[in-house]
């Protein structure tokens, strides 16, 4: 059996690299670690630090197919970020023009959460610790 210590990264393919780069680095505040343009693939790869252990790899490719998000499709459902203060995060997102859903309560844990979407309508969640 193997031992996983944590999720290292999540890879996201975007349709508009500059819009998504701004969203993840400026609006969500993830630190840019490295940006690479791969000429042979006409593709950017942007490594973003969520914290000291987890990262997002943001990719651009020419004409990627759209990902069905609604109704919910088979596969990865959403990406959730743990936050200390849900209201502060919602306020920040709303001030940046990002629409958030109403706060909901997780019936199993009693924790509060909300959803919002990235520029490509990828469902993202804020889950209060």
Indicate the topology.
Blueprint: E1 9-14, H1 17-27, E2 31-38, E3 43-49, E4 55-60, E5 79-83, H2 86-95, E6 104-105, E7 112-117, E8 123-128
Parallel strand pairs: 1-4, 5-8
Antiparallel strand pairs: 2-3, 3-4, 6-7, 7-8
Can you describe what's shown?
The protein has helices at residues 17-27, 86-95, and strands spanning 9-14, 31-38, 43-49, 55-60, 79-83, 104-105, 112-117, 123-128. The chain is of the alpha/beta class. Strands 1-4-3-2 form a four-stranded mixed beta sheet, covered by helices on one side.
Features:
129 residues, four-stranded mixed beta sheet, 8 strands, 36% strand, globular
Short note summarizing the structure:
It is built from two helices and eight strands; from the N terminus they run E-H-E-E-E-E-H-E-E-E. It has 129 residues and is an alpha/beta fold.
């Amino acid at each position: 059996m193997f031992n996983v210590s944590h999720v290292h990264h999540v890879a996201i393919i975007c349709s508009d690299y500059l819009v998504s780069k701004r969203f993840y680095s400026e609006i969500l505040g993830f630190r840019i670690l490295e940006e690479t343009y791969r000429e042979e693939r006409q593709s950017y790869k942007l490594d973003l630090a969520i914290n000291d252990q987890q990262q997002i790899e943001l990719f651009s490719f020419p004409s990627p197919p759209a990902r069905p998000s609604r109704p919910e499709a088979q596969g990865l459902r959403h990406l959730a970020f743990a936050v200390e203060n849900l209201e502060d995060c919602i306020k920040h997102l709303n001030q940046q023009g990002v629409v958030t859903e109403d706060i909901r309560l997780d019936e199993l844990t009693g924790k509060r959460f909300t959803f919002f979407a990235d520029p490509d309508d990828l469902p993202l969640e804020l889950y209060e610790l």
